[in-house]
Amino acid sequence: MISKLAAYVILGINTEGKKEVLTIQVADNQSSKYRLSILNKLKNRGVKDILILCADGLTGIKEAIAATFPKTEYQRCIVHQVRNTLKYVPDKDRKAFATDLKTIYQAPDEKKALVAFDRVTEKWA
């Protein structure tokens, strides 16, 4: 028997820059109420603050963050951003566009990313 389940893996980076697995939760589905419950459990376990939460763009995630950790900045993960962007690019151009897009988000600093952004925008406008 095959079952579809949602797995939530919550990673944190502590003040020393070390990654830590804060929790792994498995649910029957993906719901905004469940995401809220996960964040509440983290808060109850002693997580005091989250600087940036990087996640997919599922419905209710921003509201769940605002309810539990109101000072947290939400950022959509790069994988989901790229996937969403590529759906607007014709199939024949996707590989070349994705290669150019990488020059922006893999740039070593903001200045170089802006230069790459201008180059990609000019090429693909």
Q: Determine the number of helices (DSSP H or I, runs of at least 4 residues).
A: 5
Number of separate strands:
4
Annotated CATH topology of the largest domain: Nucleotidyltransferase, domain 5
The best one-word shape is globular
Low-confidence stretches: none
Structural class: alpha+beta
Assembly status: single chain
The CATH superfamily label of the largest domain reads eRF1 domain 2
Main sheet: which strands, in order across?
1-2
How does this model look, in words?
The structure is a single chain. With 125 residues, the protein is of the alpha+beta class. The chain folds into two domains: 6-76, eRF1 domain 2 (Nucleotidyltransferase, domain 5, 2-Layer Sandwich); 78-124, no CATH class. Helix content is 46%, strand content 20%. The strands form two sheets. It has a two-stranded antiparallel sheet. It has a two-stranded parallel sheet with strand order 3-4. A hairpin with a 5-residue loop joins strand 1 and strand 2. Helix 1 (32-44) runs parallel beside helix 2 and helix 4 (94-105) runs antiparallel to helix 5. The longest helix is centred in the last third of the chain and has 15 residues, at 110-124. It is globular and about 50 Å long. The mean pLDDT is 91.
